Amino acid sequence: MHSKTVRDLVKRLSGIYRNRCPVNLKPAVYRIYRELELNLRIKPRRRLKREKPEEMAVPDAPNVVWSMDFMADRLLDGRQFRLRCAT
Predict the structure, then answer these.
(1) Are the C-beta atoms of residues 82 and 72 closer than 8 Å to each other?
(2) Does the model's pTM come out above 0.70?
(3) In this structure, which of 1, 11, 28, 35 has its CB flanked by the most CB atoms within 10 Å?
């Protein structure tokens, strides 16, 4: 049996059984692969490569750089409020 057809068969069966039972089917699929002596590797998930952040500029004088933040708190009577703080 060709490995692509076996792969399609296992995907189809796992889709059918996934709708019927809520258990994790990965061990069962792996066991079937081992019994059929298939060596289809399980591909690891690829990590996204992140760019390094740029270094922050040091301001030369006051009031050159501004920052903004959000704060939230709750009053004694349980009411909540949010603030936007700019410095």
Answers:
(1) yes
(2) no
(3) 28
